[in-house]
Amino acid sequence: MNPPKKASVILAFLLVASCAENLDFSQIEDYLVQPVLTSSLTFFSVQPFHFFDTNGVQQNSRQDITEFDLFQDSTIVENVVKMVFNASFKNEFDRGAHITIDLLNESNTIVYAFKPIFVESKDLNPPAYEEEIVLASNPDIFTATKVRIIASLENTGTPMNPVDTSEFEFKSSVTLFLKVEL
């Protein structure tokens, strides 16, 4: 069969086999877009020397405050349904660590406090932490502009060695679930 005949046979088959229906453009009114956005929030790594003040006295806690502008975008504020906070850790220290995480507003007032976390000593791969927040139940979160993380070490009675190279590592991210109607 030559190419023009072959093409006409295929075209004829497609015309006979195809079906036609009236298009319903009103279906677009019921369409929902549900994007999921994930963003890194904060990361830090500390070694024993970070827990000593300028006089050489050991402090058992460190604080990190990170600013973010996640809720400055009106599209996100108007369409976000829930958020999931994720954190992972690595603790090479010879003592456990208590982690406290708070979302703060511009005035440093706590607008949301996450459940406290404990990371065992020498735990190099503890299970990741995850907390889901339904934002309709927690509207104050939209005023958050900072996240504060406080790492407090267990007091074992023995001082840390400031030249030790072990470290405590903290990584976090936030996942936003949006629901946008067209």
Give descriptors for this structure.
182 residues; 2 helices; 12% helix; 4-stranded antiparallel sheet; mainly beta
Class from secondary-structure proportions: mainly beta
Q: Number of helix segments?
A: 2
- Give the beta-strand count: 11
- Distance N terminus to C terminus? 50 Å
Shape: elongated
* Helix-strand topology string: HEEEHEEEEEEEE
Task: List unreliable stretches of 5+ residues.
Answer: none
Overview of this structure, please?
With 182 residues, the chain is mainly beta. The chain contains two helices and eleven strands; from the N terminus they run H-E-E-E-H-E-E-E-E-E-E-E-E. The protein has helices at 3-17, 74-79; strands at residues 32-33, 36-46, 61-67, 80-91, 97-104, 110-113, 117-119, 129-134, 146-153, 168-178, 180-181. Strands 3, 5, 6, 7 and 9 form a five-stranded antiparallel beta sheet that branches. Strands 2-10-4-8 form a four-stranded antiparallel beta sheet. The protein has a two-stranded antiparallel ribbon with strand order 1-11. The radius of gyration is 27 Å and the shape is elongated. The two termini are 50 Å apart. The mean pLDDT is 87.
Q: Quick recap of the structure?
A:
The protein is mainly beta and 182 residues long. It is 12% helix and 41% strand. It is elongated and about 90 Å long.
